[in-house]
Amino acid sequence: MQRSPAVRGRGITKSFGEVIALDGVDLDVASGQVHGLVGPNGAGKTTLLGLLLGLAVADGGRLEILGTPVGRTLAVPDGVAGFVDGPGLYPSLTARQNLSALASLRGYDTGRTAGVDDALEQVGLTDVADDRIRGFSLGMRQRLGLAAALLTTPRLLVLDEPANGLDPAGKHHVHRVIAGLAAEGTAVVLSSHRMDDLAALCSEVTLLATGRVVFSGPVSKLAAESGELDYRLRTSDPAAAHQVALDTSGLRVVPGRDRVEPDADVLVVHGPVTALDELVRRLVRADVAVRELAPVVPPLEAAYLALTGAAQEDLVAEQSDSTLVVSPTQEVP
């Protein structure tokens, strides 16, 4: 069954003076989906999140949120919650007082709220509910910001780097909350620089570079865009493994050990997965035990670097091509 779209954007543009933040961006997020937004600094992620939260308006294009067209006013439909650039909090108040004040300011009906205590419990802050947040770590503030978004049951949750500063326990709480909301039908859009968070949480991802979409689709498809990778190989017989690798078609031994930890037992090879499969078969036949075979750079990170790097190169080439030198006798087209 096809899920209804929570976000549908077509050709979205946004500029700040001469700086183009978004340049014809398309975005589709289905209800019940965790959608990752990723890209280098300055790619337009924060600008796009701000549009989804009604903190800014687009210059052009079409944007629908929860089935409602968003026009040229700073407003979004009910059911949208989240934060950009970190949650806004009162440092002199406790965690519980912050959420209570927010509920009061927004005029939340008690019948509609999940409850302050329940929200604090969901993000794992019950034990510090009555502590002033001026002493909170960055990760604890992020979790409190998520709790604030949960005061009402959002249908679209927008989060900017929700795992920033989290320890393993906090990360577990946040991941569990996000996954649970998606399972209940909430659409979640989150930005992150952490590829492991994308792999763990997101079913779809949009990759931005220089204000443009360079990839949009399933996370598994993004990983496939990484192409050939460097792999770290550790075996019971490094010398024999080195010779087997040299004899394996489509595989290249990477000279030097500066790309991995200085370990004489580690060999770095480069090639496609099919060549790696053949290498393992040959090592087994040669009675060489494989103790480790893993990419030096994870596939998602490798795809990110490849796609964003290509986008930056295309932009430089485009700007270079757009420079027109006119001689005195030349007509400008």
Automatic annotation (TrEMBL):
State the SUPFAM superfamilies in the record. P-loop containing nucleoside triphosphate hydrolases (SSF52540)
Key words, A-Z: ATP-binding, Nucleotide-binding, Transport
Does the record's keyword annotation contain ATP-binding? yes
Q: Name one Pfam family in it.
A: ABC_tran
Q: Which residues form the ABC transporter domain?
A: 7-235
What the entry lists under PROSITE patterns is as follows: ABC_TRANSPORTER_1 (PS00211), ABC_TRANSPORTER_2 (PS50893)
Transport recorded as keyword: yes
Query: Which molecular function terms from Gene Ontology are attached?
Result: ATP binding; ATP hydrolysis activity
The similarity comment for this entry is:
Belongs to the ABC transporter superfamily.
Q: What is this protein called?
A: ABC-2 type transport system ATP-binding protein
Q: Specify the superkingdom.
A: Bacteria
